[in-house]
Design a protein that fits this description.
There is one protein chain. This protein is of the alpha/beta class and 689 residues long. Helices cover 46% and strands 10% of the residues. It contains 25 helices and 16 strands. The strands form 3 sheets. An 8-stranded parallel beta sheet has the order 9-8-7-6-3-2-1-10. Strand 8, helix 13 and strand 9 form a beta-alpha-beta unit. Helix 19 packs parallel to helix 20. The radius of gyration is 28 Å and the shape is globular. Its EC number is 3.2.1.52. One of its GO terms (biological process) is peptidoglycan turnover. Belongs to the glycosyl hydrolase 3 family. It comes from Oceanobacillus jordanicus. It is an enzyme of class 3 (hydrolase).
Length: 689
């Protein structure tokens, strides 16, 4: 597509802005002749250009820029979904009509609206993105679109296989790794960018404090506001590197509730001190990091606004706190306006009240025409000034310019090579493997090859897949899947299957809030066989059956995590993850176990090397000597308490085992055990330093 042709309508504006800047330069005294325009002067030029665009826009076009909406279809004019779009109040029969009718500022892609298939068809999504952008820039205003989605990783990700599927935020929280957070953000950002998606409603920086939270849970990095802040900022910076606008959500913090704002109106009863020290801290850090947008939550926070209105409709929260007190001048976006938590006023008033509260972008209204006309009438009647609309339009255009949308709207097919590369998939695998947390082990793990197991649990927690993976590793037995809430007959059947098993592995899915899953596990415990629970969503399940013999948390039911769980259960991988949340009355934040019985020291690691050599996990005596010699040097530095030397030589040791692993001198298992122990020891000495 000819880029110059697309922007012909903007050429006059750019010429005017350029001449204005040139005239300004001619009036300035410049010693030594001409000099380069400063960063501040470049900003002035952009400001002139933005204002020139706004001056040429109609009121209707300005109102349209405030909306990001969803439309059904796989192509810009997909004929298969015309009735669906009309029946669901999308504002037109296809993308083209919606863009032309309402001059919208952006689109949001979903799987259920058929924009992104499962599995992903990269060519189709890129074609859709390029097509809708072409339509947008051919309109009179010539303004490109935000193309957005929710690609958090974990349970909320629209781009799946053959794209890279990550285990999610709480899994990253269990690794405690800013590097993993950044790596996941870079990969997600690059893959979205390759599909023509330029805005991601992620990361979730809510601090999850409530085990019964039905909507956040594993979407959070954890309960420690410091950890959530660090990992959130790492992802935000990674998205910026990939030219994708990030969105920290859900302001002012959705972590301590037992109500899902999709279906009700949660109340956060924290006092001001707790709000600022816990809930707001990750948002403050995100603002300092220059996050491109912040998404509001449909939550009532009485300490900030006693009106009973959700934050999305609250001027004290959006304008007084976020804009003025916290000094945020980026984009403020509502959560989806179709959610129950936002619908506390009539449908035509929801966008109006949100906008009056101080938001810039009105996300996903359930009826595009009603929402748009509600805003238009509010401006025409004087309830909302056109100047206030222009403030938000300015921020929207500034964000689009800063992210290069006016320069290039078309995404090259060559970029699709970035989707699901071997390196990307390995990164997701590494994160999943490092996240698995061994919480309890009464000498029942690892599972041995001569033991027969029953793997059972709700089908959503994938017991059949887990058993298949264990079987591939030489474990005998069977699997039996139940419903999410097991019936009496399913419980009886599982107990019968357990009769000839040596051990029972139960995969659970938010069992702490599911009475039938609790009863299911208890029935299996009564068999007298050792019961190991592998929690495949929230890590809190053990609260309702604390007497199980073993407990593993994976924070995910996705295949990448189930593969990691299988490797941990048989001992191929040494568990590394630490609880990113507290299990009330049972396990503290940071609790973890592993399979080593040696001390966490260089001396203990030397003993581990000997054990691995005896198990033939190290291929030759020369490799064993090299590892032992290196650890002996570290041991001497430990004795002299030279922490910097210990840290430096541990990092060299990690390079050494990586080399031996690549050259098949040590097995995958040996590498896992030596790497995890060296990382834990490194953390000990880094903390001391």
């Amino acid at each position: 597509m000819n880029e110059g042709g697309i922007y012909l309508k903007l050429k006059l504006r750019k010429v005017i802005a350029f001449l204005s800047a040139a005239l300004l330069l001619l009036t300035l005294p410049i010693p030594g002749g001409v000099k380069n325009v400063s960063a501040a002067e470049k900003q002035d030029v952009n400001e002139d250009e933005i204002n020139a665009i706004i001056d040429d826009m109609t009121l209707e076009e300005k109102i349209g820029q405030l909306f990001i909406v969803h439309v059904y279809g796989q192509t810009p004019t997909d004929p298969r979904y015309e009735n669906t779009n009309l029946n669901n109040n999308r504002g037109g029969k296809n993308f083209q009509e919606v863009i032309e009718n309402y001059h919208i500022g952006g689109l949001i892609y979903f799987n259920w609206s058929y924009n992104i298939g499962t599995p992903l068809d990269p060519e189709q999504v890129q074609f859709l993105s390029n097509g809708v952008q072409e339509i947008a820039v051919e309109q009179d205003s010539g303004i490109p679109l935000f193309i957005s989605t929710d690609q958090e990783g974990g349970i909320v990700q629209r781009v799946t296989e053959p794209g890279t599927v990550f285990p999610g935020n709480m899994a990253i929280g269990a690794t405690r790794s800013e590097e993993f957070a950044a790596l996941s953000g870079n990969i997600i950002g690059k893959e979205l960018n390759s599909l023509g998606i330029n805005m991601n409603f992620a990361p979730t920086v809510d601090v999850n404090l409530n085990p019964a939270n039905p909507v956040i849970g594993i979407r959070s990095f954890g309960e420690d506001p410091e950890l959530v802040s660090k990992l959130g900022v790492s992802q935000i910076n990674a998205y910026k590197e990939q030219n994708v606008i990030a969105s920290a959500k859900h302001f002012p913090g959705h972590g301590d509730t037992d109500v899902d704002s999709h279906y009700g109106l949660p109340v956060i009863d924290h006092d001001l001190e707790t709000l600022h020290e816990v809930d707001l801290k990750p948002f403050k850090e995100a603002i300092d990091a220059g996050v491109g947008s912040i998404m509001t939550g449909h939550i009532v926070v009485p300490a900030l606004d006693d009106s009973g209105l959700p934050a999305t409709l609250s001027k004290p929260i959006i304008t007084d706190l976020l804009r003025e007190e916290l000094g945020y001048d980026g984009l403020i976006i509502t959560d989806s306006l179709g959610m129950s938590g936002a619908n506390v006023v009539p449908p035509d008033r929801v966008p109006v009240e949100s906008f009056k509260a101080g938001v810039d972008i009105l996300l996903n209204p359930p009826d595009v025409e009603v929402a748009y006309n509600g805003m238009l009438e509010a401006v025409q009647s004087g309830e909302i000034s056109e100047e206030r609309v222009e403030e938000s339009v300015y921020r929207i255009l500034r964000a689009k310019m800063e992210n290069g949308l006016f320069e290039e709207t078309q995404t090259s097919p060559d970029k699709l090579e970035n989707i699901g590369t071997e390196a990307n998939l390995q990164a997701a695998k590494d994160i999943a493997e490092k996240s698995i947390t061994l919480v309890k082990n009464e000498d029942v793990l690892p599972v041995q090859n001569d033991e027969k197991v029953l793997v059972t649990g709700p089908s959503v927690a994938k017991p059949s897949l887990l058993y298949q993976l264990l079987e591939e590793k030489g474990v005998d037995g069977r699997s039996y899947a139940t419903g999410t809430s097991p019936t009496d007959s399913q419980i009886e059947q599982a107990v019968e299957h357990a009769a000839d098993a040596d051990k029972i592995i139960v995969t659970t899915y938010t069992a702490n809030t599911n009475e039938r899953q609790r009863e299911f596990v208890e029935a299996l415990q009564r068999t007298g066989k050792p019961v190991i629970v592998s929690a495949h969503r929230n890590p809190y399940d053990v609260m309702v059956f604390p007497e199980v013999d073993g407990y593993v948390a994976s924070y995910s039911y996705l295949d990448v995590s189930i593969n990691a769980v299988a490797s941990v259960l048989v001992g191929d991988i040494n568990p590394y993850g630490k609880l990113p949340v507290t299990i009330p009355d049972l396990y503290n934040l940071g609790h973890s176990l592993d399979y080593t019985d040696t001390s966490l020291s260089a001396e203990g690691m030397k003993q581990l090397v000997d054990e691995l050599a005896q198990q033939d996990e190290i291929t030759d005596s020369q490799t064993t000597r090299a590892l032992t010699t290196h650890l002996s040097a570290i041991e001497r530095f430990e004795e002299r308490e030279l922490g910097d030397k210990v840290v430096k030589h541990l990092e060299s040791f990690q390079d050494l085992i990586a080399h031996f692993h690549e050259t098949d001198k040590i097995t995958d298992k040996a590498y896992s055990y030596l790497e995890t122990e060296s990382l834990k020891l490194h953390d000990v000495w880094t903390t001391q330093e």
